[in-house]
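Handout, page 2. Input:
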Amino acid sequence: MQTVIFHSTIYGPIRSRRLGMSLGINLMPNDGKLCSFDCLYCEAGFNAQGPGKDGVPSRDTVKRQLRHKLQQMKEEGLTLDVITFSGNGEPTLHPEFKKIVEDVMRLRTEFFPDAKVSVLSNSTMAGKPAVAEALLKVDNNILKLDSAIPRTFLAINRPTSPNCIPEGVIADLKKFKGQCVVQTIMIRGEYEGKHFDNTTDEELDALLRAYLEIQPREVMLYAIDRKTPAENLEKVSKEELQRIAERFREAGIQVQVNA
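Output:
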């Protein structure tokens, strides 16, 4: 079974197809996965692998390790486009997320003031006041919405809470008043005998209505690019992504395609 891919709290820098040269911050365990979704396409594997034994890193550990890495990169004359919260699960689940964001913003300004700070989030905690406040501090508040139709949302993202539905996610994202980027993977396939496809006209119309409600700064469309824990998933072509993007652009949505 595919398992965690980040075995450290600070990792990289790596070249991100969406964000450029990125230094990653993994706020989840280094030896397991902890997430409020269990997405079929997650490169870190399914939640069934368990959260491991190490637990989440402390605020002090994150701050100390990030300072060391940024200082090292500065001394070596390296460049940095972005510091990205990602990793083995949902970063906003960390109990000290807000304070860690504040630390990261200060360290960014000290060592690489031109670099951006990004958070890749599945949106499930976006309605929590402390999390929302922290997300409004970063440069790129990137929030997931893969489907606005409940059956497809549940099939692809498989939220761990039965109360998590797309209507609630959309309502939470609207509260950012445009200070967010919405990230959507275009995908189709089959899992446990159930077929799903968020590229149909019905799905795209529902997504467009959601985007128009949320009014994000930008929508990022992308397709699977790495090994996934579920096998029968189809990679949507760049040409199809571009056609979908154009459909959204015609309605006034700013769209970036990452294929």
